[in-house]
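Please, structure for the following, as tokens.
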Amino acid sequence: MSAAPLTYSPLDRAAFDAIAAARPEVVIPIEQTPDWVEFEQALGRTPLGIWAYRDASGTLVATASYVHVVRRFRESVVVVNGPVWFAERTPVAERQLMESVRGQFREHPSVDPLYVRMQVATPQAPATGPIEHGWYEREIVVDLTPSEPELLRSFRPNARNSIRRAQRNGVEVRHIPREEWKEVFATQLFPIMQETAERDGFQSFDSAYYETLLAVLGDHLRLLVAYRGETPLSWLITTEYRGYSVYYFAGSTHEARSTFAPYLLLWEAFKVLKAAGNTACGLTGIVSENYPGLANVTTFKRNFSKNVVVVPTTFDIPLSPVRYAAVASLLGARRTAPRTAKAAVRRVRVLAQRAVGRRGRVGVEAEQT
């Protein structure tokens, strides 16, 4: 017999703040806060609010902040880095939440999503997929509670040596004043992000995204830049919420690597975040089964801590399983078609080269007879 569905209700900022204040031990990702809702709105996206889920006794189970996403062939509702759990996250409780969420958005008056996407710790029905992965699954978390000397000693020797080498190379870390964030980012730092994306093979947001982030979430952010002379080499943006900080965005030039600037930059960030009362700093995603492309950044991040945290994987909750299966099949075919075509072209080229080689050998043999 299945458990009774959870009840759900929207939360305004005051209600959310009251829940957060009552449970200071719960880590609430900044993406699951009213501040992030304002950021999504500033980007022109469509947040659907933060909702609280309670059991039959009225006990709070979880909260989730939703964004409505419309893409070709489908629309969806996405929980970014959530939901947030206030009760024990058991398989039964997760299934109960997913069933409640599915009912909630099947009956929603203004959206008709194909699926709801959220993190699920125990894969089970109705979760499936996902059509594409939306969040990292493992990360390094640095404990900021030790003293600065103890924290430095906890790093791998490579990190400590690299910090000292950056200092000897004349690298200086500067805290950019908030009133200068937009101009400095647009003129000095976004070109570095473009260089980083091209070098590491990922697609960055446009400059307006980062500028909006800095403008809307400024109370929760820090912007640090490593310079050599007046040349910016490396930068990072950190977030802070309820004593938990995140190394959120970063970029570096080729010269930054040769001068070891990113090591000194992150060390300075740790010191500032610790002084501000943060007890931990998440370094975001590292390599995992679904994210093999994070191998390069994993090597860098492992220098600062051995503490690997597993993050629940993102799954889809289809509202119409038949339609979801059809769309997933179509999109899968579209993704594999280019790879199949390229493979076919490569096979044709190989066969052509072999044919040319055979003709050449035949010609030589004919001349020799």
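Residues 29 and 81 are 7 Å apart (CA to CA). Confidence is low (pLDDT under 50) at residues 340-345, 358-369.
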